[in-house]
Design brief:
The protein is α+β, with helices and mostly antiparallel strands and about 200 residues long. The chain has four helices and nine strands, in the order H-H-H-E-E-E-E-E-H-E-E-E-E. It folds into two domains: about 50 residues, no CATH class; about 130 residues, no CATH class. It has a five-stranded antiparallel β-sheet, with helices on both faces. A two-stranded antiparallel sheet has the order 2-3. Strand 4 and strand 5 form a beta hairpin.
């Protein structure tokens, strides 16, 4: 039991170090390159092939994309205050949020369906105007992409890539932490152990 608790605590510490220790080094401008070279543009390219599906089906397929490097989760959303925006988001009849199960990764995505006859361009502008790239306490997204296909709207704020930190970067995920399986199961750089 002690070993299990120690391993779980070690994993949580690693996630916390990775999430709060990394900083944004890129720009926060919306992506303009149509070529699928970043996380957001790769997901947008796939979205464009899925527009005949429901928002939930689209979100699930996007989360299965090889570019996704986290444990995924999705859920339906209703009009109101949504994660990633400074103001209430209204004007859609169906919406699904998708992203990581762990909330400190700078990624949040949505698939919305605007009601027939609704102003899709105005809805897209509302999303863009209210998006907050630093909605997450420890992190900041590097790109924001919002595009409509018919009355279905794709929105994502995310890092440009999920590449690991370069060698020698002090922000590595587990560089300063060792996890062992013996009774002193967790040993961090400062010598703290759990027994």
């Amino acid at each position: 039991m002690k070993k299990t608790i120690a391993i779980i605590l070690a994993a949580l510490m690693m996630f916390a170090m990775a999430a709060c220790g990394t900083g944004s080094t890129g720009t926060t401008e919306p992506a303009t390159d149509p070529a699928p070279t970043t996380v957001g543009t790769k997901l947008l390219a796939e979205f464009k092939t899925l527009t005949d599906k429901t928002p939930q089906e689209i979100a699930d397929e996007l989360l299965a994309n090889e570019v996704i490097q986290f444990m995924p989760a999705s859920m339906p959303v209703e009009e109101g205050f949504l994660n990633g925006f400074n103001d209430e988001i209204k004007g859609f009849k169906e919406g699904v949020m998708f992203g990581p199960a762990i909330g400190t990764i700078p990624f949040v995505g949505y698939i919305f369906t605007v009601a027939d006859g609704g102003d899709v361009d105005a809805f897209v502008k509302t999303l863009e105007d209210n998006a907050n790239l630093r909605w997450n306490i420890c992190t900041e997204a590097e790109e924001m992409i919002c595009e409509a296909a018919g009355n279905t709207v794709f929105f994502v704020m995310c890092p440009k890539s999920f590449e690991e930190a370069p060698a020698g970067d002090d922000m590595g995920v587990a560089g300063d932490m060792a996890v062992g399986m013996d009774d002193g199961a967790v040993a961090a750089e400062d010598g703290i152990t759990l027994e």
